[in-house]
Amino acid sequence: MYVKDFIAPNESFKTSISKFNDFSYTIFKNKATNTTIDSVSCIENIGGLDFYCFKMNIKISTNMHMHSWSLKRIFKDKIVSINLNYVDPKVGQSFVHALKKAKFI
After folding, report:
1. Which of 61 and 26 is assigned the larger pLDDT?
2. Which of 41, 46, 60, 104 suits a disulfide with 64, CB 3.0-4.6 Å?
3. What three-state secondary structure class fits 105?
C-alpha cells in the first residue's frame, strides 16, 4: 500500500485510473508472451470505502496463474493505492479476505 499527494490532472480521476489500467494490461500482454490475460475493472468496497479496482488473471502456463489486484481511491487529498499479487490461490484468498475486512481510521 502507498499513499501520495493527489495532484489534480486535467482529466477525471476515473479516466486517469482507466488509462493506467490499460497501460498495465498492455505491458503484461506485450512482455509476457504465450500468456492469456483476463481482466476486469470494478468497484470494491474496503472498510466502507469504495475503491476503483483492476483485476487481472494471467495464465502463465497450464500450472501457473498469477492474480493481480490494483485498488485506488482519493482519500483526504491523497491517492491511496493497494496492490495485491499472488500465484497461490489459497494464500491469495486469505489476503483478499483480510483486505476486505480492513478498516480505515
Report:
1. 26
2. 60
3. coil
Which residues are within 8 A (CB) of 24 and not within 5 positions of it... i.e. 6 or more apart? Answer: 54, 56, 70
The more confidently predicted of residues 92 and 31 is 92
Neighbouring CB atoms inside 10 A of 104's CB total 10
- Tell me, rounded to whole angstroms, the distance of Cα 17 from its chain centroid: 10
Residue 79 lies in a domain: yes
Kind of pairing, strands 64-75 and 49-61? antiparallel
Domain total in the chain: 1
C-beta separation of 49 from 75 below 8 A: yes
Query: In a 10 Å sphere around its CB, with 0-12 CB exposed, 13-18 middle and 19+ buried, how is residue 73 labelled?
Result: buried
Q: Judge whether 31 lies within some domain.
A: yes
Rounded mean pLDDT, 97-104: 86
Domain hosting 86: range is: 2-100
Is 105 within a domain?
Answer: no
Q: Answer yes or no: is 38 within a domain.
A: yes
